[in-house]
Amino acid sequence: MSVVATSTRFSRERDQPVRPVLMKGNEAMAEAAIQAGCDAYFGYPITPQTELLEWMARRLPELGRVFVQAESELGAINMALGAAATGARVLVSSSSPGISLMAEAMSYMAGSELPLVLINVMRGGPGLGSIGPSQSDYFQATKGHGHGDYRVPVLAPSSIAEAVSLVADAFELAERYRTPVMILADGVIGQAMEPVVPAYRTPPRRAGGWQVSGAAGRPPRIVRSLHLRPEDLEAHNRELQSKFAAIAEAEARSVAEDLGDAEIVIVAYGTAARVAQTAIERARASGLRVGLFRPVTLWPFPSRDLAEAAAHVRAVVVVELSAGQLVEDVRLAVEGRAPVFFHGRTGGIVPMPGEVLDAVKRAWALTSPRPGLAGVAEQVAAAEPDPVSLIELGAWEAIGRHVPDSIDAVDSMPFLVAGNARNGR
Amino acid sequence: MSTMTTDTRRVIYRRPDVLTDRSSHYCPGCGHGIIHRIVAEVLDELALGPRTIGVASVGCSVFVYDYLGVDFVESPHGRAPAVATGVRRVRPDAFVFTYQGDGDLAAIGTAEIVHAAARGERISVIFVNNGIYGMTGGQLAPTTLVGQRTTSTPAGRDVRSAGYPIPITEMLALLPGVTYAARGSIADPQWIGRTKAMIRRAFEIQLAGQGLSIVEILSTCPVGWGMTPSESMKHVADDVVQTYPLGVLVDRLKSTARRDGEG
After folding, report:
1. Average pLDDT of B158-167?
2. CB contact at 8 A, A213 and A86
3. pLDDT value of position B2
4. From the CA atom positions of chain A, what is the Rg in Å?
5. ipTM of the complex
6. Which of A71, B68, B153, B251 has its CA 20 to 30 A from that of A153?
7. Does A206 touch chain B (CB under 8 A)?
8. Rounded CA gap, A2 and A311, in Å?
9. pTM of the shown model
10. Positive or negative CA dihedral for A374, A377, A379, A382?
């Protein structure tokens, strides 16, 4: 399996321990932050990220650094705002409902241009939802949280080892661009244990010149997001937008696996990408040439790389632990170069590799350019449909200019016809 | 022929160093100008300006950072005590204070002030209570007097639907993490002097490393109240103090708290 990192912006240090250690994701991310030079952590308990808070509660005081368990996620992130305003390297973590509470201060921190690393160990929603793993905060992370015109970089680890290295990357990005950076993990990344050789890294400190410290021997500094004069606020927004454009240009990252000869590309991040990897192995064992495109940055979205990958395949299959959020960015990036199919599970359920393989086979059948592939379609039609899959609920969709050649194959699968009919075909 | 005379003039009143030399945006008769000045005087007297990090809140006084020439962090509405906590924890050498109105501290920010107080954060809180939301045009505040007309209680505050004023400083004074809590007023020169002494005491307690200190200051909003500035001052002195009695509520560095005196 070939792995190609499409961006090499982040260099890795070599002096790392070589013995693998068995680490829980939440604890590994916590220790990675400590090793990255995190000065202060503010948090509030919520499943499935609580071990991260507990690790910090034990480790930071023994290092003489700051740990505060706040009265709420509102309290936690506003403490982080205050600490970050002094130039401290600050981490907060939470899970989905808590991130919603932090959304207010995310907007203020983006507006005030304060660095922060925020880890979201996603759980099922909406509302209190469940404590199971989920990827249903993709929209919130990449397009929203708080009010106003702003973006924050979003990094999505798909293994604990990668989570460790992304924590250091996140601090570096946060300070380089003076912006909050979110690590979007899910309950599996947080709760699972994996043997990792942790690639700890301590990004260098930047000089600054903007932090509050007491105005001794210099004019006072004000960290703020308020600009009441319309001209002032527009000028501020223009500066922010040019910063976001610079981030979008320089920091998009993705990983491509087995794309060289692939006819179908699965797009997935985080835990969904891990499931996809197993599905791809099985697909290739049965003669289907399938590859993986895994966004590492969800914002900026690696649109150019994905468009390039999609230009050479006959179908794109998006797999998510959600009802379909990443798929929208995939469609925007693919721009009709290939039909885009979706398979997702919600409620804290992780799709099985077999489900993903079935989705791939259906996409294969639907986009078959040659009649000789009818056998695959029959095989798919004969397969026992998953009674709870979103495919059966009609969420299966195909869009794009590519019209399936094998209409017979489509007709043999009524649930697919329903999906296509909704798309006007 | 000219004769040399000895200049016997001396400066008895001048702008404090910390107070910036600019005219304010506050309405005529607003109390913020007086309060800014006495805070600046205390910062000067204790030579705290160069090590001060202030936390501005949301409301008319968000622009305190334009008038006090010290480093400032602007906080979301109500969150100033949490922001100040973050500043304080990573900057143990700084002098940290928040400047909050009554909507900010006693409504949307109740959780933040109560828990900063419970933790005994070494911060000082200037809590300006004028019983109304001034910046948004005069709505019911948690501190609005019973019967008081506001734009959202046009018939007067009715306790059956709008509840009672919150004596939040008394509530905070119950917490062991609050080392000093007092209530002053800017309604007359005597109380302005006493209130300044309260602020000084609150700041000294932070410098002594002893818990959270808060000074509530009864202030005015002539525009929001529909009164002239002088009527507003009289209203505070005669009426508002009936709901919010003046004095030191707790001073844990003294053997016994005095409830009737000055700071």
Report:
1. 97
2. yes
3. 56
4. 23
5. 0.93
6. A71
7. no
8. 20
9. 0.88
10. negative
**CA nearest neighbour of A380 among A351, A407, A355, A348:** A355
Indicate yes or no: CB of A215 within 8 angstroms of CB of B71.
Answer: yes
3-state secondary structure of B45: helix
B108 interfacial to chain A (CB closer than 8 Å):
no
Strand order in the sheet with A340-344: A3-5, A254-257, A290-295, A264-267, A315-320, A340-344
% of chain B with per-residue pLDDT over 70: 95
CA–CA–CA angle A408, A413, A414 (5° rounding):
110
B220/B129 Cα distance (integer angstroms): 8
For residues B179 and B224, give the distance between their C-alpha atoms in angstroms, rounded to a whole number: 33
How far away is chain A from the Cα of B93, in angstroms, using its nearest Cα?
Answer: 9
| Nearest one of B242, B188, B239 to B34, comparing CA atoms | B188
pLDDT in tens, B169-188: 999 999 999 999 999 999 99
Residues with Cβ < 8 Å from B61, sequence gap 6 or more? B32, B99, B100, B101, B128
Taking the Cβ of residue A215 and every Cβ of chain B, the question of whether any pair is shorter than 8 Å is answered with yes
3-state secondary structure of B129: strand
Tokens of residue B100, six digits: 């909050």
Q: Per-residue pLDDT tens for A219-232?
A: 999 999 999 999 99
Q: Are the Cβ atoms of B86 and A222 closer than 8 angstroms?
A: no
